Each structure stands twice: as structure tokens, then as C-alpha cells.
Amino acid sequence: MTKSSLTTITAKPAPEETQSCWSCGTMRAVHFCEACGKVQPPAPVDYFTFFGLPRKLNLDTAALDKDFYDLSRKLHPDINARAGGQEQEWSLQQSSLLNDAHRTLKDPIKRTQYLLKLEGVELEEQSKSATEQARSTGQLKKQIVPPDLLEEVFELNMQLEELRMHKKMGEDDPALIEEIGRQKLELEEKHEALLHELKAHWKTWDALIEREQPGQPVSEDECKQACDKMVDVLNRRNYIRNLVRDVGEALEGSS
Ligand SMILES: [Zn+2]
Q1: Most buried among 169, 174, 209, 231, using CB within 10 Å?
Q2: Residues lying with their CB under 5 A of ligand 1, a single-atom ion
Q3: Which carries the bigger pLDDT value, residue 14 or residue 170?
Q4: Closest among 187, 193, 163, 200 to 241, alpha carbons compared
């Protein structure tokens, strides 16, 4: 038995190779038919695959924008409004997928977060309830403070406490406000610098993807290490962003 039937099964082409246009039967493009222009049913793919991109983090955003605008025109529901109900529906679904994919991949932080999610990494949750609680109590949010910020955050908390005391007494302390403002600026600079640090880790990740060959996956350890470094940067960045926002709120109405 049937070597031949076995061959038939294994020789079955991958789905993307067999996909032909539901309308004219000729096509191979993923989202619309290159022959007749009809919108195709959306395939359940990740955002990188949607744009035909490898899972690399250094990304040509100008090329991404161009692909986005080209696809927008072809998939736009208004353009396909004359089409039948089913194609119109696909058009809506494809357009919405296109918009989500573009928005996510265009932004360096969202792109990194999305990739990490695809790789099964959970990011530290900066929960909404914690933020609300911090607002109502006037305390800086209780979070795990990144070790390199411990001293700074401690100092800052003392100063904010002092500021609140002054406010309560109806006193003015321009020097303190200026000092807190200066620290806020420093934190904003750190926040910015972390983007560069993140981009350095992109290189490591992209090199792994480039090295990957069919049948020769890169080691899980290496992937995990690269992911962990990015997670660390994102968590620190998140922490600083929240801190800056909290300090900004504390300063509001004080200047
Ligand atoms: Zn077609």
C-alpha cells in the first residue's frame, strides 16, 4: 500500500499554495485576487504574516505604510460596496484586520509587546485598579521598583509627601516644586533612553530569526533569553511612564 496514496497525502501542498480565488479560481495573493480583484475570506494569521513579514523587530516602516495604503484601497469596504453581501463582509473583516496589524506593527513598543505575546511571554500587568487606587490615595503606585531606580523613587516619594503636606497647609514651596519637576524631566529622559536599549535587544532577536532554517530551529534558551531582556526593558519603561504620570498629577495645580 500504497506508496502512491501515501505520496498523494504528503505531497498535498500547503494551504496557502492551494488557495485559489473563490470567484475566478486563479489567484494566489492572500487578501484579494490579483486576477479579478475580489476580496478573499480572511485567514486566521498573526499580524506579521498578514503583511508577509518575518517575525523580526527591525522593520521598514515606510514599506509597511506603503503596503498598508495599497491594501487599504483594495480591501476597503466602500470600494467593495457593490459586491455581494459575503464579499462585503470579508472586506470589512480584512480591513479591520489590516488596520489592527498596521497600528500594532508600526509602533515600536506595540510591535515588541505583540511579538512577545506571540512568543508566549506575559508582560507584567500594570493594572487599572492599581492606578485608580493610587490616584485616590495620592500615593505612588505600589509596584516592584526596578532596582536601579530604588533610591530615586524613595527620594521622590519623600518629596511628594512633603509637597502634599505643604498643600494641606496652604503653603507654597517653589524650590521643592522645581526640584520635583527636575526629577520628572530626568525620568522622562530615562524613559526615552530605554527605547534605545530595547532596540539593541531587537538586533539579538532578529539575528536569531535570520539564523533559523527549516528543520533547524534556534534553541529555546536563546529565544527565551532575548525575550526576557526585552520584557525587562518594557517593564522598567512602564514603571517609569507610570511614575512620570503620577508625579505630573501631583504637580498639577502646584506651579
Ligand atoms: Zn479572482
Answers
A1: 231
A2: 21, 23-24, 33, 35-36, 38
A3: 170
A4: 187
